[in-house]
Design brief:
The structure is a single chain. By secondary structure, this protein is of the alpha/beta class. The protein contains 21 helices and 30 strands. The strands form five sheets. Strands 4, 5, 6, 7, 8, 9, 10, 11, 12, 13, 14 and 15 form a twelve-stranded mixed β-sheet that branches. A seven-stranded mixed β-sheet has the order 27-28-24-23-22-29-30, sandwiched between helices. Strands 16-19-18-17-20-21 form a six-stranded mixed β-sheet, sandwiched between helices. β22 and β23 form a beta hairpin. The longest helix is centred in the last third of the chain and has 26 residues. It starts with 5 loop residues before the first helix and ends in an 8-residue tail after the last helix. It binds zinc ion (2 copies). The site of one zinc ion (ZN) has 9 residues, from α4.
Length: 743
């Protein structure tokens, strides 16, 4: 079970039933010794199961009878740190209902105080400097309690008993508003000044839990466009924060599952179907990313009259990591923000907002960070500690301690120097917290010899290192989450790029096998050429050149209606001369090629943009069919599929129908391949993972076609299907020592 506010809770119910004993945060979680009348102990156990606090999660409950001891009362004992703590570090929590009531109660000591919290809520991972988790080891160490907070902290019956970040306006940190010219001090005055600026269309950098946000009025197009220009963010959608569910409903359609995600403890950004047109927020996109307030400060902003919807985007320029240290924020965001709403409490580490969606196969996490990290997502049957360093895009790392797999926050793309530094810091940070002995450590890394994460991992001290093939790691991540170690499955791994066994760029792969026995590649997308290699990922027409070069008798796509730019001809030259051209089975690049043929011929301004564009275009089509995507001799043949796209576009069919028929064709092809492979390998379960499966329309089509056959379809639940989930799969395969599989 998780130690959040748990010890005071146990204390309260133990004293209610007149039990003696103790509770402590032991090395494997919370340990309770409870003795008294049998009936009282039973009622205590019942209450333990049914009344636990909202922030606590009971993962497992082991009950054992022991000899009674001579004890006078029930006590909360200090944490015991023995050799290797697996006490879990709690993710950050949203402010709780009790604290919210006090926040708006004028008679409360913490009325309007932006740092209000208790054992059931507030910061955790974002303030913890080291373990054990107590105040001197947090970023609150510079604010000693006053008598009032001290009394609450020591009172076992109080909601703030042992709440490490507890504070009040008298003894705790405050917010202030900083501009180039002036500073407004005092929480209330600073918030008021911030709101005046937001209402006037200005951009304010607001310090949150795991970093700064850039905020502006989402309904003010000039403000939003200014944000785009200053942030160098041309088209990537901005996340919104709204006051409550009712305000969210004004912007987007929300079903039961989506509402559950919005109000869940992690308070992620949830992708929702837009009801209103906000073209500056999400250009060409039918979804809006919406989140609800989770810090007391954010609640105060809305309570005091913030615009109904705020853009709340990570404070950075373009795709740099989010700023979280004050001085760094002032320097990096000086040209973007008109003012800074600064909180004095330091942030221990950078933690972005998480992103999730209520998908066809249940909730799907697309970016796993604040509210989820660094929680444990799986148990693995392994004693030795394992560090898995992930891949270079959307990096996150996994540390396995005593069989518990802890997945870090989203770190980002390691070709950014700042992100790479954060990657190295996170490794050392988690290793130190869990007292990892480097000489014991098994390190798993991607098989790509030139990944920064690989090169870095190879320099670390360890017991042993293992290279894990990218797409096998995707499939393994799904099975690890479910604890399915022996289950043999058909694993489908579709993404943009990953280093294959043969050195080619893989990304349209089918495997048969299990975590325990490893995975054998049994089928794949027909191989195409990729001029420029991974660099082609930014230019759909460049990917198209590689795929179209394999098809005879096509019209010249430099002509209307295709109008491919000269980059296409140059790329074709590379293919014909076999210069800087690589073999690829990437489904991601196939989607890019189709997007180019349907009209996306420009450079992408963010990763995955062309495929996203195609999916959203497809959703607006009312009628469609399925373009042929035959599965023969272990290969999905893209040639008839792309030929159909070219011919139909030439005939003047509407682009959204072509996009829809392409999507449906891909789903059909995948279903046919899966059916054939399940029979051939005597399997009943399909596992889907990889970035391409962020395409919700593809999942809907796939489910609709395959589910009636009575087969199981498994997707990721706790880690992202994109490369943010890779490290968990690496760790799982390393635990079974099946890094590359039998072949
Ligand atoms: Zn609270
Ligand atoms: Zn105080």
């Amino acid at each position: 079970m998780q130690g959040v506010g748990f010890r005071p809770f146990v204390y309260r119910i133990a004293t209610r039933f007149h039990l003696c004993g103790w509770v402590l945060n032991g090395e494997d979680g919370v340990e309770i010794h409870a003795q008294g009348d049998t009936a009282d102990v039973d009622r205590f156990l019942e209450a333990l199961r049914t009344e636990f606090p909202p922030a606590a999660v009971i993962a497992t409950l082991d009950i054992r009878s022991v000899e009674p001891l001579d004890l006078p009362e029930f006590m909360i004992r200090e944490s015991e740190r023995r050799d290797r703590p697996t006490v879990r570090i709690s993710p950050d929590l949203p402010v709780c209902g009790d604290c919210l009531r006090e926040l708006v109660d004028p008679s409360d000591r913490r009325h309007g105080y932006p740092y209000i919290n208790c054992t059931n809520c507030g910061p955790r991972y974002s303030v913890i400097l080291s373990l054990p988790y107590d105040r001197p080891h947090t970023t609150m160490k510079s604010w000693p309690f006053d008598d009032y907070c001290g009394r609450e902290y020591r009172d076992p019956a109080n909601r703030r008993f042992h709440a490490q970040p507890v504070a009040c306006p008298n003894c705790g940190p405050h917010y202030y508003l900083q501009t180039a010219e002036s500073r407004v001090s005092g929480d209330e005055a600073a918030i008021r000044e911030c709101l005046e600026r937001l209402r006037a269309g200005q951009i304010v950098a607001v310090k949150g839990l795991g970093g700064y946000h850039l905020a502006c009025d989402a309904r003010n197009p000039a403000a939003v466009l200014a944000m785009r220009e200053r942030k160098f963010r041309k088209e990537k959608p901005f996340a919104l924060m709204v006051k409550d569910i009712a305000s969210a409903r004004a912007l987007a359609h929300i079903n039961v599952e989506e509402e559950k995600l919005l109000v869940s403890v992690a308070r992620p950004i949830v992708l929702l179907a837009a009801k209103v047109e906000l073209p500056e927020i999400a250009p060409g996109n039918r979804e809006l990313g919406v989140m609800l307030p989770y810090t007391p400060l954010q609640h105060l902003l809305f309570a005091e009259g913030a615009p109904e919807a705020l853009v709340m985007t990570s404070a950075n320029r373009s795709s740099e990591p989010i700023a979280y240290q004050d001085q760094d924020a002032f320097e990096r965001l000086g040209g973007i923000a008109d003012a800074f709403l600064v909180g004095e409490r330091p942030i221990a580490r950078r933690i972005d907002d998480s992103i999730a969606r209520a998908g066809s196969f249940g909730p799907l996490i697309l970016r796993r960070s604040r509210g989820y990290a660094p929680g444990s997502v799986a148990r693995l049957p392994v004693e030795r500690p394992i560090l898995a360093v992930g891949a270079d895009l959307k990096n996150a790392i996994t540390l396995v301690v005593k069989g518990q797999a802890f997945v870090s926050q989203h770190i980002g793309d390691l070709d950014h120097l700042e992100a790479f530094r954060a990657f190295e810091e996170t490794i050392h940070d988690l290793a130190a917290m869990y007292d990892i002995q480097w000489d014991d450590l098994l390190i798993a890394h991607d098989a790509h010899p030139e990944y920064r994460s690989t090169v870095s991992a190879l320099q670390l001290r360890s017991h042993k290192k293992l290279a894990v093939q990218h797409h096998r790691a995707h499939v393994a991540s799904v099975l690890a989450e479910r604890g399915e170690w022996e289950k043999r499955v058909l694993g489908v791994s579709f993404d943009g790029t990953g280093y294959g066994d043969d050195g080619a760029i893989w990304g349209g792969e089918f495997f048969a096998g299990s975590l325990q026995s490893g995975f054998t590649r049994v089928a794949h997308l027909k191989s195409a050429a990729l001029p420029g290699g991974d660099a082609a990922a930014e230019f759909p027409v460049q990917a198209a050149a590689g795929f179209l070069a394999h098809i005879e008798g096509l019209p010249d796509v430099a002509d209307p209606p295709f109008n491919f730019p000269t980059r296409y001809q140059n790329a074709l030259q590379l293919v014909h001369r076999n210069l800087r051209t690589f073999a690829t089975t990437s489904m991601g690049r196939l989607f890019d090629s189709a997007a180019a043929l349907i009209g996306f011929t420009r450079e992408m301004s963010f990763e995955g943009q062309a495929a996203m564009w195609l999916e959203h275009l497809a959703r607006s089509a009312s009628t469609y069919d399925a373009y042929p995507f035959p599965f023969l001799n272990g290969e999905l043949d893209f040639r008839p599929l792309l030929t159909a796209v070219v011919e139909e576009r030439g005939r003047g069919r509407r682009p959204e129908r072509i996009a829809r028929s392409f999507q449906f064709g891909v789903a059909r092809g995948l279903v046919n391949a899966a059916k054939a492979l399940l029979v051939a390998h005597d399997l009943d379960t399909v596992v889907l993972s990889g970035g391409v499966f962020q395409n919700e329309l593809l999942l809907e089509d796939f489910r609709q076609q395959l589910a009636p056959a009575g087969l199981q379809i498994w997707m990721n639940r706790s880690v992202p299907p994109n490369d943010g989930g890779i490290s968990l799969g690496q760790a799982a395969l390393a635990a079974f020592n099946n890094a590359s599989g039998p072949g």
